[in-house]
Amino acid sequence: MEDARPLLLFDSGIGGLSVLRAVRALLPDAPIVYVADNGGFPYGTKSEAEIAARVPALLGRLAERYKPRLICIACNTASTIALAGVRAALDLPVVGTVPAIKPAAALSRTRAIGVLGTDATVRQPYVDDLSARFASDCLVLRHGSARLVELAEASLRGQPTPDADYRTALDGLLEQDGGDRIDTIVLACTHFPLVADRLAAVAPRPLTFVDGAEGIARRIVVLTEGQDWPAAASAGVAVFTAPLDVPAGLRTTLARFALDRTETL
Ligand code: DGL
């Protein structure tokens, strides 16, 4: 029998579209519910307690409403803080997003890597742990940028965003002690891969940018192996947690990701 249960991808805003892109490449027939918690945006400047309280409760409501087969927390901030809480609260597979420090360490020739995320993500013990396990022979520098999240949101609404602001975000890493050795940067916020071309364009030297989207998509494939998908790919829905008069630029972006309908939770 046809299984119409969707995959539910969740982020504070449009960042999770970078994960959706990778998921669609591997699972083109999967029905998609993409949730942007615009009512709670931004996450990166919030406290651990706020995120740990908000995210499991919200995902509980969303799971009840949309009956997904799997939830992907397409947000590093929510995952590094609330993944365990969400898994404890819900009885379905939950895939999180963690900073791609392991692949970055495998790629770096200079043994110096940067982790660019939100303020909340870069201060997590989870990042210490990943660095110790997978990059113990590397210098790992971190920088949190709330501005880069805003730039990605604006850019995907079709608004102009200045080069200088992208450069400032990069300099937050490159100008630290030892930052001149960095050759690889982990984009540890799902918003950032959406503006990776802008970061690359203003970089003072060639840098390799790494994110976890493909690994997440592969994990979802493994967890849904053997399951049926609807015969015809249905248009996805974008769900906002607070009323939003979706601006034309954002609507165009959502359509580019085959999210043709919008709803408010
Ligand atoms: N996209 C989110 C992340 O991956 C967070 C952005 C924000 O709300 O600050 O961390």
UniProtKB/TrEMBL annotation:
GO terms for molecular function: glutamate racemase activity. It comes from the Bacteria. The active site is at 75 (proton donor/acceptor), 189 (proton donor/acceptor). Its EC number is 5.1.1.3. It is an enzyme of class 5 (isomerase). InterPro entries: Asp/Glu/hydantoin_racemase, Asp/Glu_race, Asp/Glu_racemase_AS_2, Glu_race. Keywords: Cell shape, Cell wall biogenesis/degradation, Isomerase, Peptidoglycan synthesis. The keyword Isomerase applies. Pathway: Cell wall biogenesis; peptidoglycan biosynthesis. Belongs to the aspartate/glutamate racemases family. Provides the (R)-glutamate required for cell wall biosynthesis. This is Glutamate racemase. It comes from Sphingomonas natans.
